[in-house]
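Before going further, it is useful to explain how the protein records used in this thesis are read. An example of such a record is reproduced below.

***
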Amino acid sequence: MENLASTRRGFLLTVSCAALAALPVAALAAGPQTVTIENFSAAGKDLGAVSLPKVVKSEAEWHAILNAEQFEVTRRAGTEQAFTGLYAESKGDGLYRCICCATALYDSRTKFDSGTGWPSFWQPISARNVVQNADHSLFMDRTAISCARCDAHLGHVFDDGPKPTGLRYCMNSAALKFVPRATV
């Protein structure tokens, strides 16, 4: 009888320990529930860091708010065809925000004509607002850029840009929403 009790107790202890050990892994897999980004006014003024909830939606919810090209680019890491995007040649003064969550990503004052057919910037509006990840697709080693708040794929960064950074953030127009600069 004592062996049965100790076996049952051992089993419960083993199951309990396994469940506790799995908790941190499950929490890490779920990712952070909040993200700290830099907030910007409509005039492009830095309003400081702010912690906001991470934007997480189902595939159906993304489909409901994005057109087919926006969905393919932002949620499936697609690339729009060169020279077809709305912002490839635009020269307006303002901010480029994430099409999925409206996080400020780029200031038009850092936009330049790269000749590639995609809107290009020499730096993001804040390093906090974008995330870099290794991309080994298409038999290339590249650095993919995504929105820090909603994980939308934006494009890639390359080291062939102009001064002062020498970087070219080559973005998809379909991932961006241009908002003219407020004159406040």
Remarks:
- The chain has three helices and eleven strands.
- Residues 1-30 form one domain.
- The chain has two domains: 1-30, 32-180.
- The helical segments are 2-30, 59-65, 68-76.
